[in-house]
């Protein structure tokens, strides 16, 4: 294919351009929904308020230690809002323009990351285009408050790419510091950004070193059938991996400790924001587990997207005989089986699939309700970062189908083009 001969930077630029074009309609939108509280009514954006207030207050301008605070701490995102306000106050165009430009920048970096993961341009192009036009991103890019997710994603990818650089340069300590700095920036843009500290070692094992869990266990147990120099080299690498992971992990735990210390008190969410909080056990857990499956479905088929999922939009799982429990069980079992299968084999296909799964699941966990309740039922914008892994998996799946089935290759290519067109049209229509 001619596209294979293109540089990944060129493909990234094309995808970034497409990402900006499909969201041009959003430039004419007003400030609405949560934008009112985050921008219009947020005193921290005003020039007469000290910049230090951004470090003391939550995303909505309430002192974060206050009992009524939402506990969303995103000072970097609020700082960008304040810069917007300095330039044009509450004129919506500037806020939406920055969001579109940030989305384009994210798409560009995402394609570069996919180029590293795939070592091929063709699947990176498909992943980049799918990420650029996916309708699930409408809320994140078109809604001004969605900038938190887009900005966090920008630093998220930058952290992984910088970590990659630290593995192949003499200035590894400097690039490691930059990796941690970008991780903090991602977390200070939106909380889920801190999960990038887990993705960095995963990238090193699966993509950079081309290994999996079984390989590492064999190194630890001394079961690798290689000559002595190779074994010694692998042992040195494993020790360095453990050291880097310990450094990153310690840094992340310290950051989380300081971050939670700011809260003083845990967040208090109203039942209207997350009705399942009042459900009895086990129906509360069953309902939240089903919501995870619902999020997967939104990525697979974004045909029934909604601006607000509260107030009974999704009926509660109130019975053990609810057929949705079977769907939840099947989805979790399928993901677990695919993860175990991919983690057990060291073929390139399995490692890339495992990386895509990790990139989908790990950033979503803080918003999943599985470990602690959050202040919403479903928020499409929180899928902005996890959708990177989803798009990676879909594009690689199509790539394997096209590569391994010459007879049906034209059909699969047509399906790809059709999917991208439908998603692009859906996004354009939804941003009007």
Characterise this structure.
By secondary structure, the chain is an all-alpha fold. It has one domain. 63% of the residues lie in helices and 0% in strands. α6 runs parallel beside α17 and α10 runs antiparallel to α12. The radius of gyration is 22 Å and the shape is globular. The chain starts with 7 loop residues before the first helix and ends with a helix. The mean pLDDT is 90. Pfam families: TMTC_DUF1736.
Silhouette: globular
Report the uncertain regions: none
Tally of separate helices: 17
DSSP, total strands: 0
Biggest beta sheet attributes: none
Keywords: Membrane, Repeat, TPR repeat, Transmembrane, Transmembrane helix
GO molecular function: mannosyltransferase activity
InterPro entries: TMTC_DUF1736
GO biological process, one term: protein O-linked glycosylation via mannose
Q: Top keywords for this entry?
A:
mainly alpha, transmembrane, membrane, 17 helices, 432 residues, single chain
In short:
With 432 residues, this protein is an all-alpha fold. The chain is 63% helix and 0% strand. It is globular and about 60 Å long.
